[in-house]
Amino acid sequence: MQFTKHARRMGVALVMAVTLSVATACGSSGDDEGSEVSAADLDAVRAFMEPFYEQPTEIPNKTPIDKPIPTGKNIVFIGCGTSTCNLEADIIEQATDALGWGFSNIANDGTPEKVKAAWAQILRTKPDGVIYSATDRAVFDQELRQAAEAGIQVVACCTTDEPDDALKYVIVGSEQNFEPGQLMAGYLIDQSDGKGDAVWVDVSAFKILQPLREGFEQTYEKYCPDCKVDVIDIPVTALGKDVPDRIVGYLRANPNVKNVGLSIDGALGAGLPAALKAAGLNDIRVIGDGPDENTLQYIDSGQQSATVTFPYYEAMFAQVDALARLFAGVPLEDTSVIPNWVVTKETLPTASEIFPVVEDVKEQYFKLWGVN
Asked: N or C: less crowded end of the chain, CB within 10 Å?
């Protein structure tokens, strides 16, 4: 099956199994650079990657809201406890401010206990709308249903949860989160000429990352079938602590591995360049998904190879757009297109702050909403 730019949003079911235990290792002869892929496979992966090296221009939504959007609504955000979710809160507030809505962020560490406590607070305060990110609905399903019964509109990002009567809208769900994994693998194969094994650094506690891993593994299987792809699973409790040491320890023990994919760029990549340098690992190629400001500085200084720019602005504005449509009494759009972009030092717009994937995302949404 050919991978296409629109595979995720079309919901293509890719079910090719990748069995790590029988994967043939690149460089099994002991050559650190491993076996090269065929010229045809390199041409194919580079053709697949070419569109994603260019900055996208389309936001997830297209249809203007043709009824008045009520002002004065109160919106609450429940994040996932990582630095990337804190970035999301800041962007959501920019969108809610434009609509004249109040906004608050319930900080938590992403553990089930804290997430459940956040939902208990929702039921006490009864805001008009709730946005949550990257947390498992199974933890708070009862509270979510109670919120819906109370008339609270709920939308979400970055979750395997499916929309229903209680959860009205989801963006960057399972199907939409497959493509970034493809792009990370495609970039590593492209830039390494198919040399060197790869490792995927996972946080399996976040179920939404599973499609990323599948996209990564299946793309390696397709274009670099002789390459071994291994997995390191990082527990949530290790985030912000010893993640770089875990990755460096693995790379020292596996010298054929030259390519690293980070499932959560900002959370897993913090401190990694310094740790690699201190260990003398100067030939490691790293790409992640979902950069934070540290990631951008690493790329700008040449300490990290690339990142897939998670559409923070586009996904957060799309959730506010969904709430606006619900409050205005207009239908939600059937399809949300997720823009993906592989950014390197040469194409990085700025290293000082998180930037939109679509340059004029705010202006496009304000036009849909009829605000300045």
From this structure: C
